[in-house]
């Protein structure tokens, strides 16, 4: 039976396979779902004893060394009622994975999708002030990610100006990547979004 180290190496190798290979052997599943499952699997393996290290991504483009000035951004929007009381949460990490900004903000009354865009705008605005040259963005909203990637059209009149604002902010970076992640990998930003709502409503005060 494979040991934990060997299992991690096998999962890593599978994650580095081209999309067409994964799709050929697992045709019943979308490639994105396969990669998410591999990512989740490797993260539940026990970590080796000793100095903690940041786990290497299963996505090859994220395994290259980050240059100075690179940032990681996690954002989330929450709306209680859709539309209802809404909040935005953002977490910004430096290239070594150290948290440098964590913020929750009340947004008033809006829908989930508007809250997601507002959170992304807040995060990108903060990131530009840090003079980051490149940025990797992680959201649990597949709709927003695919709209930014150009895979989905932005049909809602409420979202169109927010989409344009995001594209303008992204143009200030030398490069960017945006990726959809499972909700459980975005808990910190979700917590901050809900905290922004609670603080405004005096919950727990």
In short:
This protein has 205 residues and is an alpha/beta fold. It is 40% helix and 22% strand. The model is unreliable at 47-68 (pLDDT under 50).
Structural overview:
With 205 residues, the chain is α/β, with parallel strands linked by helices. The protein folds into two domains: 4-62, no CATH class; 70-201, Nucleotidyltransferase, domain 5, CATH 3.30.420.10. Helices cover 40% and strands 22% of the residues. The protein is built from seven helices and five strands; from the N terminus they run H-H-H-E-E-E-H-E-H-H-E-H. The protein has helices at 4-15, 19-25, 31-43, 112-129, 142-148, 160-170, 187-201; strands spanning 70-80, 84-94, 99-110, 134-139, 175-180. It has a five-stranded mixed sheet with strand order 3-2-1-4-5. The longest helix is centred in the middle third of the chain and has 18 residues, at 112-129. The N and C termini lie far apart (53 Å). The relative contact order is 0.15. Residues 47-68 have low confidence and may be disordered.
Which features characterize this protein?
single chain; 205 residues; Nucleotidyltransferase, domain 5; 2 domains; five-stranded mixed beta sheet
């Amino acid at each position: 039976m494979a040991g934990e180290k060997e299992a991690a190496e096998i999962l890593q190798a599978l994650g580095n396979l081209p999309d067409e290979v994964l799709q050929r052997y697992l045709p019943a599943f979308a490639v994105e779902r396969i990669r998410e499952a591999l990512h989740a699997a490797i993260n539940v393996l026990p970590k080796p004893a000793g100095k903690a290290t940041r786990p290497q991504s299963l996505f090859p483009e994220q395994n290259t060394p980050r240059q100075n000035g690179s940032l990681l951004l996690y954002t989330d929007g929450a709306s209680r009622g859709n539309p209802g009381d809404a909040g935005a949460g953002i977490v910004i990490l430096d290239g070594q994975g150290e948290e440098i900004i964590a913020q929750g903000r009340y947004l008033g009354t809006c829908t989930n999708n508007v809250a997601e865009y507002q959170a992304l705008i807040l995060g990108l605005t903060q990131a530009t002030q840090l003079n980051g040259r490149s940025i990797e963005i992680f959201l649990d909203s597949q709709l927003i990610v695919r709209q930014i990637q150009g895979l989905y059209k932005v049909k809602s009149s409420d979202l169109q100006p927010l989409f344009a604002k995001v594209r303008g902010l992204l143009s200030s970076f030398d490069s960017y990547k945006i990726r959809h992640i499972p909700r459980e990998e975005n808990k910190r930003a979700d917590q901050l979004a809900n905290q922004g709502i609670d603080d405004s409503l005096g919950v727990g005060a």
